[in-house]
Amino acid sequence: MVSIPSASQFDTAQSRVGLATAVVLPCYNEAATIAHVVASFADALPGAVIYVFDNNSSDDTARVAERAGAIVIRETRQGKGHVVRRMFAEVDADIYVMADGDGTYAAADAPMLVKALVERRLDMVVGTRRGVRQDAGRSGHAIGNRLFNGVFQWMFGDDFSDIFSGYRVFSRRFAKTFPAVSRGFEIETEMSVHASQLMLPVAEIETDYGVRPEGSVSKLRTFHDGFRILSVFFLLLKETRPAFFFGGIAGLLTLASLAFGLPVVAEYLETGLVPRFPTAILAAALMIIASMSAICGLILDSVSRSRVELKRMFLLTQRGLPTP
């Protein structure tokens, strides 16, 4: 069991190693909760600078956050991915603590996550949500969470068990080298794939996960966002594991070619005739396309490996955590 350091212990450790810590909170219409969230993180992480990134809220989120003591930055492009890209570009710190503005993540757990990042010299710590697979606000979300985490582990490995958690702590070099090409809620998936692809040191720590208070409404759209996340899965699979992606397509096309072609071949061996000539052409065409897909996968795999090497070299140029 991981012990949670007190705020004073965090403040002492932070001062000793000279770490600049930023709390970054993406927000969209969270006026009902943002003041409490800002105050909670200020108490949990003394000395940290708290930023609220307002994403076109139609309520008083920005004004309430400013009155609570946060630095408010407005991002006009709609979507959490745009906000994350902006906050990593705008904010300069050694440690980034990212949470949501809806109050579902416990600020009291933040010192524990920061402590793990610093002491274990990690690049990302994910606060996995306790009980989220049983109740993620709605039963559809809980089922989707289990399904998508299973698909992710099959595609990209088992480094993460809660890829949709928005409670994360990052090192500076992660924040400054993360490409952030996603636009919406799928940004957490991209973060997990980025860490897995570069084999960055990461950890997961279980944290409390609450329910939204009355007056705060979830922005997730079950089917729309689920489809977008699944699309991003396949896009990232194509970009990071092209041999697997195009090899899978080649395998399916090969099976289809054999299903159409083998009866034609068997008939030819028996009679010496090819009466189903169009079927034979289709089988041959499918096999040719399968071969082209496999070759594309091999070529793009070399390109992907080169991109990983470049990302890795750029990562090493960034300042890491200082030695305690």
UniProtKB/TrEMBL annotation:
Name the enzyme group at the top EC level: transferase
- Where are its TM segments located? 243-265, 277-303
EC code(s) of this entry: 2.4.-.-
- List keywords of the entry alphabetically: Glycosyltransferase, Membrane, Transferase, Transmembrane, Transmembrane helix
* Domain Glycosyltransferase 2-like intervals: 23-175
Q: Which InterPro entries match?
A: Glyco_trans_2-like, Glycosyltransferase_2, Nucleotide-diphossugar_trans
Q: Name one GO molecular function term.
A: glycosyltransferase activity
Q: Mind telling me which Pfam families this protein's record contains?
A: Glycos_transf_2 (PF00535)
The answer to whether the entry has keyword rRNA-binding is no
UniProt protein name: Glycosyltransferase
UniProt organism field? Sphingosinicella xenopeptidilytica
